[in-house]
Amino acid sequence: MYRSSFKPLLLAAALSTLAGCSMTGGDGMFRDRGNDYLDAAEIDPMQMPEQVDEQTTEELYVIPPLAANNPDSETITQVDEYAVPRPLPLGAAAFGEHVKIQKLSDRRWILAGLPPSEIWPKVRHFLSSNGLRVVYTDAVNGVIETGWLQFKASTETKDRYRIQMEQGVQPDSTEIHILHLSVPAEMSGDGQVNWPKRSINQEREAWLVDELAAYLASLGNTGGAASLLAQTIGGDAKVSLTEVEQEPILAMSLSLTRAWATIGHAVTQEGMVRYGENANNAVYYFAVGKPPAAEEEGGFFSNLLGFGDDEQQQGSALAQDELPAQPPFSIDELLANLPLDEPEVRELFVNLSPGADAQRLQDLPGYLLVISGNSNNLQVRVRDPYGMKLPKATAQELLKLVRRNLI
């Protein structure tokens, strides 16, 4: 009797609970408050008594006011004006291969696509595994010196190597320079020596360069161990994008010869065409546009450079026009007819004098890339073909394009 009367009570309680769930929020027992912030109203800030320090109750996350519209600045004041930039292309020269040997005049060095802190232990392992005794190391400055060794082909001399690791021109890359020294075999001691500016024997320098490059390449583009002591090798970056008087520039800690050569290579990559050069004034004349093959076939290069419809080019400050086979004027004609009466042109081209028949040339394509300053303290600017400053966004994108292809 007791059992049969208790079952209806349990059933009634269960039905009451289910009904309550459906009445409290729709999808469950509690109402979803995820979108309540959309209807929230702003309230007045808290007012503190005079005797209380207001600094202790300041906002933790202050929203700064939008800057006023300024036609001379690149400040974005409207969200709908912002264009998402295209992703960087994957064809940057320095990262196409993990390890390669670079040459400039009679100089040879190894370029590795890993930071110095990761290259340092790999070089140490190469030396130890090949029986090359190390007698001096300076991890802070990236220097390793081997002990004396003797080649079977020349028993009358003995040899020694100095390996210098430096920051590369690209981020997270390393340059490895090798110096060779040879002295008479009877010379004794492993102490400090006077290292020459150039290797005594170029062939024996090349031997170690080739062997070390082959070893690093065999390891693949992997990270692995890193040296804490070698974190500061090379100091600051050799190339950085910065501004001088609100004009974008590339600051280069390179010799003028090295900078001239690597920039000359860069302005022939990724859709850039070099029209001419003037070494006396350190100026390159180049353009950016559609190569004929990319226009006809599309495909990889079209996607890489952003050639195509307006949607593909969204976020780019560069106009991707079809390039003329040859510009209407040579670089020497451009320089002879620059508007040197313009202050921003005159201060950059200080060594030029106005030509007797100087005139304003019309409809010039392309850009001028100008290197100024002294070795290890160089500044690279990009200007329009009349030597005038470009819009900041355009100058920045062109300089980034050049920087990606430095070697």
Architecture overview:
The protein folds into two domains: 93-232, Alpha-D-Glucose-1,6-Bisphosphate, Chain A, domain 4 (2-Layer Sandwich), CATH 3.30.530; 239-404, TATA-Binding Protein. The protein contains nine helices and 13 strands. The chain is flat and about 85 Å long. Helix content is 25%, strand content 21%.
What structural category arises from helix and sheet content?
A: alpha+beta
Taking the sheet with the most strands, its summary is: 7 strands, mixed
Q: Residue share in helices?
A: 10-25%
At CATH level 2, the architecture of the largest domain is 2-Layer Sandwich
In DSSP terms, counting alpha (H) and pi (I) runs of 4 or more, how many helices? 9
Round the Cα radius of gyration to an integer and report it. Answer: 33 Å
Q: How are helices and strands ordered from N to C?
A: HEEHEEEEHEEHEEHHEHHEEH
Low-confidence stretches: 13-26, 71-80, 88-96, 294-315
N/C terminus separation: 96 Å
Question: Residue-averaged pLDDT, rounded?
Answer: 78
What would you call the shape? flat
State the gist of this model.
This protein is an alpha+beta fold and 407 residues long. 25% of the residues lie in helices and 21% in strands.
List keywords for this structure.
single chain, alpha+beta, Alpha-D-Glucose-1,6-Bisphosphate, Chain A, domain 4, TATA-Binding Protein, 2 domains, 9 helices, 21% strand
